[in-house]
Write a structure and sequence with these properties.
The chain is built from no helices and eleven strands. By secondary structure, it is mainly β. It has two domains: 73 residues, Pectate Lyase C-like (3 Solenoid), CATH 2.160.20; 89 residues, E3 ubiquitin-protein ligase SopA (Pectate Lyase C-like, 3 Solenoid), CATH 2.160.20.80.
Length: 190
């Protein structure tokens, strides 16, 4: 099957919900106010694309290429990024809702999560080294065997991870949220 190529296009106010958008390539495209909820994006590639105010909740990302993607004001709830293509996997998130998504095994060095809701997201065995979580809510986010070296959590809240089960060398945390690093000890901290 030959892929359909879209270059330098703007897609605005399009409803792709529950549709199949497979085996398509999008290069330097912009998506504004588009609906992708429950859409099947399997085997499609997105390279150097921007998404603004789009809803991807429960979309299927099986072997989807996400290379140098910027999500702004998007709803990305319940997505399994771990099933997407790992080759050149790279994205940044600004003012997005990523709740209940999973990034297991992904390499996400230097990823920006700015002003995002990242509740109950699974980052197990993910490389988040040198990433930035700025003003994020990380309630019940899972960090197990995760590389958090030089990751910046200082302005975020409700993060919790066990430093003995993750790589945390030079990670930046706020003294106000140290209790999230000591949870397993069941301490009463005032």
């Amino acid at each position: 099957m030959e892929n359909i190529l879209h270059q330098h296009k703007t897609f605005e106010n399009i409803d792709y919900s529950e549709e199949k958008i497979t085996h398509e390539e999008f290069l330097n495209c912009e998506f504004l106010n588009c609906e992708f909820s429950k859409a099947d994006l399997s085997h499609s590639d997105f390279l150097d694309c921007n998404f603004k105010n789009c809803n991807f909740s429960l979309a299927i990302l099986k072997n989807t290429g996400l290379k140098n993607i910027k999500f702004m004001e998007c709803k990305l709830m319940g997505l399994d990024f771990s099933s997407s293509n790992s080759f050149l996997f790279s994205m940044n998130f600004y003012d997005c809702i990523l709740d209940y998504s999973t990034f297991i095994y992904k390499k996400m060095k230097k990823t920006n999560f700015i002003d995002c809701s990242v509740r109950e997201v699974d980052f197990s065995e993910t490389d988040l080294s040198m990433s930035v979580f700025k003003n994020c809510d990380l309630s019940n986010a899972v960090f197990q065997q995760t590389n958090l070296e030089k990751t910046d959590f200082r302005t975020s809240k409700k993060y919790a991870f066990d430093p003995s089960e993750n790589k945390v060398k030079k990670a930046k945390v706020s003294h106000l949220h140290l209790s999230g690093l000591l949870e397993k000890f069941d301490l009463d901290i005032d």
